C-alpha cells in the first residue's frame, strides 16, 4: 500500500497566561531570532502593541485590511529591512496578513491574538481578499502563540461567542470529512478528526460556564481554538474544521449586504448542516449556541432570510470539497425548507 509523504508543521511554543505581553521578548530569544518586527492596528496598538514593540525595541507597522495588496506591501518591507520574525498582534486581519506575508518570504511569525473569534489564530490558513474574492490560502502556522487570557477576556464578548461558535461547528465539518472519505475516497485522519471533535465537545459541555469578562472562559476558548488549529496542521488541510457550514459562511460573505462574524455564520451554518446529517442532533448545536449567546437565526446574524437561502444554494460551489450539500447543491425550495425547519428563518 502506497504511503505518500505527509509533513506536519506545528507551532513550537504556546505561552498562555494573564497579562503576558512581556513574554514575547523571551519567547523570541528562546526561538533564536534577533530582528523582530511588530504588526498591529490602531486599536491593538493601544491595547498591547506599543508595549510589545517598546519592550522589543523594534519597529511596528499598521495593517489596515487583509488584502493581497497589503500582504505584498508589508512583505516587501519586511524583506527589505531584513527582519527575521514577525509578531502579529490583533484579530483576524493582522494575524492573517502577517501569516501569509511571512510565509511568502520564508520567515516565521508569532500569533498574539487580542480576540478569540475563530481558529485562524493558530491555523496555517489565511483569509485574504483579492479584489472582490475572499480567499482561504494555505500559508504556515505560527511558530509561537501568545495566548493572553486577560486581553482576550476584556474584548467585547461577541468575539468570544463567535470563537465558541466556530469550535462547535467542527462537529459538522468532521461529519462532512467522514462522508467525503466514504463516498469519494478522500484522505482522512482519525487523529486530526478526534482532536477537532474534542474541541467542539468541550465547548458544548462548557456552554453554561462560558461567560463575559471571565479569564477562565477566555482560557477554555483559546485552548479549543489552538487545538483546532493543531488538528488542521495534522491533517495538512482545513478539513477537520471546515465543511458545509464554512462554505455557507463564505457564501454569505459574498452576498450579504452586512455579513456577521465568521464564527457566528459558521455556527448558524452548522445548525443546518447537522440537520442534513443527523436530524435528531441539530438541536444540540442550536441549544449550545443559545447558551453561549451566539446567533442562531438570520435576524440575530443581521442578514435577510433571502440571503440565507441564496448562501445555502451557492455554498457547494465555494470550493472543490465534498460535503453533505452534494455536488449539485440545494434547490431554492430545499434551502428554504432547511432554513425554516431549523428555525434559522421564519
Automatic annotation (TrEMBL):
GO terms for molecular function: glycerol-1-phosphate dehydrogenase (NAD+) activity; glycerol-1-phosphate dehydrogenase (NADP+) activity; metal ion binding. GO terms for biological process: glycerophospholipid metabolic process; phospholipid biosynthetic process. Substrate binds at residues 119, 166, 250. Pfam families: Fe-ADH_2 (PF13685). Its cofactor is Zn(2+). It is found in: Cytoplasm. It catalyses: sn-glycerol 1-phosphate + NADP(+) = dihydroxyacetone phosphate + NADPH + H(+); sn-glycerol 1-phosphate + NAD(+) = dihydroxyacetone phosphate + NADH + H(+). One of its GO terms (cellular component) is cytoplasm. Glycerol binds at residues 119, 166, 246, 262. CDD domains: Gro1PDH. Pathway: Membrane lipid metabolism; glycerophospholipid metabolism. Zn(2+) binds at residues 166, 246, 262. NAD(+) binds at residues 40, 92-96, 114-117, 123. InterPro entries: G1P_dehydrogenase_arc, G1PDH, Glycerol_DH. Keywords: Cytoplasm, Lipid biosynthesis, Lipid metabolism, Metal-binding, NAD, NADP, Oxidoreductase, Phospholipid biosynthesis, Phospholipid metabolism, Zinc. It comes from the Archaea. Binds 1 zinc ion per subunit. Catalyzes the NAD(P)H-dependent reduction of dihydroxyacetonephosphate (DHAP or glycerone phosphate) to glycerol 1-phosphate (G1P). The G1P thus generated is used as the glycerophosphate backbone of phospholipids in the cellular membranes of Archaea. HAMAP family: G1P_dehydrogenase_A. This is Glycerol-1-phosphate dehydrogenase [NAD(P)+]. It comes from Candidatus Methanofastidiosum methylothiophilum. The gene is egsA.
Amino acid at each position: 500500500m502506497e504511503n505518500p509523504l505527509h509533513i506536519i508543521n506545528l507551532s513550537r511554543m504556546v505561552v498562555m497566561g494573564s497579562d503576558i505581553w512581556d513574554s514575547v521578548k523571551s519567547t523570541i530569544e528562546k526561538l533564536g531570532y534577533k530582528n523582530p518586527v511588530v504588526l498591529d492596528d490602531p486599536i491593538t496598538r493601544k491595547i498591547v502593541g506599543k508595549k510589545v514593540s517598546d519592550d522589543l525595541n523594534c519597529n511596528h507597522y499598521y495593517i489596515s485590511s487583509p488584502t493581497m495588496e497589503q500582504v505584498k506591501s508589508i512583505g516587501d518591507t519586511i524583506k527589505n529591512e531584513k527582519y527575521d520574525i514577525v509578531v502579529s498582534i490583533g484579530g483576524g486581519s493582522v494575524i492573517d496578513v502577517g501569516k501569509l506575508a511571512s510565509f511568502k518570504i520564508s520567515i516565521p511569525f508569532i500569533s498574539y491574538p487580542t480576540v478569540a473569534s475563530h481558529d485562524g489564530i493558530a491555523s496555517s490558513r489565511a483569509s485574504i481578499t483579492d479584489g472582490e474574492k475572499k480567499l482561504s490560502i494555505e500559508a504556515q502556522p505560527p511558530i509561537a502563540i501568545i495566548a493572553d487570557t486577560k486581553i482576550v477576556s476584556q474584548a467585547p464578548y461577541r468575539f468570544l461567542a463567535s470563537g465558541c461558535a466556530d469550535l462547535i461547528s467542527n462537529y459538522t465539518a468532521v461529519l462532512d470529512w467522514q462522508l467525503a472519505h466514504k463516498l469519494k475516497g478522500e484522505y482522512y485522519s482519525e487523529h486530526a478528526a478526534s482532536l477537532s471533535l474534542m474541541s467542539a465537545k468541550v465547548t458544548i459541555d462548557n456552554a453554561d460556564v462560558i461567560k463575559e469578562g471571565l479569564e477562565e472562559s477566555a482560557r477554555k476558548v483559546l485552548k479549543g481554538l489552538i487545538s483546532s488549529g493543531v488538528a488542521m496542521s495534522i491533517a495538512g488541510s482545513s478539513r477537520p474544521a471546515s465543511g458545509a457550514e464554512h462554505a455557507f459562511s463564505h457564501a454569505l460573505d459574498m452576498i450579504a449586504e452586512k455579513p456577521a462574524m465568521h464564527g457566528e455564520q459558521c455556527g448558524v451554518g452548522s445548525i443546518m448542516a447537522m440537520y442534513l446529517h443527523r436530524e435528531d442532533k441539530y438541536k444540540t448545536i442550536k441549544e449550545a449556541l443559545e447558551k453561549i449567546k451566539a446567533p442562531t437565526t438570520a435576524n440575530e446574524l443581521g442578514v435577510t432570510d433571502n440571503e440565507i437561502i441564496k448562501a445555502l444554494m451557492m455554498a457547494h460551489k465555494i470550493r472543490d470539497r465534498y460535503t453533505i450539500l452534494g455536488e449539485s447543491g440545494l434547490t431554492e425550495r430545499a434551502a428554504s425548507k432547511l432554513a425554516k425547519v431549523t428555525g434559522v428563518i421564519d
